[in-house]
Records
---
Amino acid sequence: WVGLGGPVVPPVTVGHNAEGWLEVWAVATNGVLKHLFQTPERGKWSAWEDFGGGLNPGLLCLQRRDGGMELFGVGAQSRHLMHRAQSKLGASRAWMPRLAETAAKRSGST
């Protein structure tokens, strides 16, 4: 076992991107969505990055037919279904929209 950092709340979700690398999402103890991914260097991982949030643990990652990834979760306060999609294939950091932006648009507060 190799530690990848944290602290996160189980369960985590793992997806397989269009380039064949794994990507991991987890909810941190403060409710922020965290993301890391395998790098082309064998056995190496990116640093954790914040994706915003306010989510409950228990995310779901699916791969589209075109190889892009879709992420779903439930807002911790709103209890709304939240969605984020990879906006560019093969770009581990290219995800749209930010979760807070999505929630604001749906509630009419933008």
---
Amino acid sequence: GPVIGLVLLFLGLRWRPSAALDGAPLATVEGVLPLGNGVVRLASIYLPNGNPPNTEKYPYKLGWMKRLAAHTRLLLAHEEPLVLAGDYNVIPEPRDARDPAAWVSDALFL
């Protein structure tokens, strides 16, 4: 949003939307922050939530996660610090939800 744009302008970052991965869009914004003798690669992602899980949205989410993992391996190949931040739309463990029972059938929890 506009606040992120202002922060990036202030920091002098150059951001670019990620290219599609394997023909499917990847909702990330990536940039490189120069720091002293090196850089930090930054990526902000929005992972599709996959709901409802009994539709094509859940397999799409799983495919998106596989493409993100492959893309992350490419970013890590630069051997520079990397920050992947954003909305992952994943509840990895019951302790990560206030009320795990409320999420049992949700794509975020599967």
